[in-house]
Amino acid sequence: MQGANDEVRVKLGDPAGRARRPRADAVRNRERVLEAAKVVFSQGGESASLEAVAREAGVGIGTLYRHFPTREALFEAVYRREVEQLVDLVQVLKAEASPAEALRLWLRANVAFVATKKGMLAALALATQKNPDLMAYSSDRLTRAVGELLARGVSTGEIRDDIGPEDVLRALIGMCYAQERPDWQASVLRLLDVFVDGLRKPGRPAA
Amino acid sequence: MQGANDEVRVKLGDPAGRARRPRADAVRNRERVLEAAKVVFSQGGESASLEAVAREAGVGIGTLYRHFPTREALFEAVYRREVEQLVDLVQVLKAEASPAEALRLWLRANVAFVATKKGMLAALALATQKNPDLMAYSSDRLTRAVGELLARGVSTGEIRDDIGPEDVLRALIGMCYAQERPDWQASVLRLLDVFVDGLRKPGRPAA
DNA sequence: CTTGCAAACGGAGGCACCCTCCATATTCTA
DNA sequence: TAGAATATGGAGGGTGCCTCCGTTTGCAAG
Question: Is B126–A122 a contact, with Cβ atoms under 8 angstroms apart?
Answer without folding.
Answer: yes
